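Colleagues,

For the teaching module next term, I've prepared a clean inverse folding example: a structure given as tokens, and then the sequence designed for it. I'd like students to try predicting residues themselves before seeing the answer, so please don't circulate the second half yet.
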């Protein structure tokens, strides 16, 4: 899960930068936050900590990474501020972001990802683990694993069960 979450982080940042170039500033701000959130979740997973909500990620980040001194408090501030901006960008129809404000949010995300990258490497991951392979994204790995499970499942079916599966699937 560490690597899967990590790989979503730079993908979200790339999406934010594309949206910024297309002057979709609110959407870019939102995607920049998601880059931060995925990187934070990856850092938490290093310690076996999972959070299923945005509030949970913020709370667990502080509890498991900042409080014990593993990560500097500044990064928790980035996570919280990014979350606040994401909420405004997604739900406040009266808010707008300038190109400069959007650029700052993307820069905040870029800095956060760099710090989390350092943290992940310091905690046993390698540069290779954190690389984004254009041909193998986290979901293609999951699809490959799911296909293997389905093959195993099919091999254990009786012949009449296989016929039903073929008709249905």
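(Answer key — instructors only)
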């Amino acid at each position: 899960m560490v690597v899967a979450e990590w790989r979503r982080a730079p993908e979200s940042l790339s999406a934010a930068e594309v949206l910024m170039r297309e002057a979709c500033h609110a959407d870019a701000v939102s995607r920049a936050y998601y880059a931060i959130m995925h990187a934070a979740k990856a850092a938490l997973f290093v310690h076996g900590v999972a959070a299923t909500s945005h509030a949970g990620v913020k709370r667990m980040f502080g509890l498991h990474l900042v409080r014990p001194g593993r990560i500097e408090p500044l990064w928790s501030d980035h996570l919280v501020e990014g979350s606040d901006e994401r909420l405004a960008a997604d739900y406040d129809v009266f808010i707008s972001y300038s190109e400069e404000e959007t650029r700052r949010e993307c820069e905040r995300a870029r800095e956060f990802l760099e710090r989390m990258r350092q943290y992940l490497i310091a905690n046993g991951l390698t540069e290779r683990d954190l690389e984004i392979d254009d041909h193998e994204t986290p979901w293609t790995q999951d699809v490959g694993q799911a296909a293997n499970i389905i093959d195993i499942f099919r091999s254990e079916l009786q012949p009449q069960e296989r016929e039903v599966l073929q008709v249905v699937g």
